[in-house]
Amino acid sequence: MIKLIAAISDNGILGLNNKLPWSCPEDMKFFKEKTIDGTVIMGSKTYESIGRPLPKRTNIVITSSKIEAATNLTSFTSLQEACYAYPDAFIIGGSQIYREALAKSLPNFIYLNKIHVNVEVNLGDEIVTFPWIDNKKYTNINITMDESKAFTTYSYLRLS
Q: What is the mean pLDDT of residues 114-125?
């Protein structure tokens, strides 16, 4: 089952200047618990922002250029190819990968965490937002507030 996992701020921001614009240990714990010992698929910008393969996971990077070989790291030029080769994986970003995945209805399940912060932006900042989830393709099946009240998880299931 292909799953997608993402986090956005209350004002809809996914990334700012190629970084997460908040510190939320509770969300990081949620992400780790969901993806540990599994496969994660990401774009090259996300991989660059992390700076290394995520430990205890098979890391798949979607890129058109060569990347340095590392343990637990494989690259593909196509998101669909990667999802076909690894049918039980989490799509973890970035924005372009999320847009393509949702446009092609690749994820069977979506975890979207809304981090309860408003991200301040300045003129010239590179702002990245999460794409719209089409309610004709996905239905919200659960909304859960984290125990710490730092974020709320919106869970979606693909309709067809």
A: 94
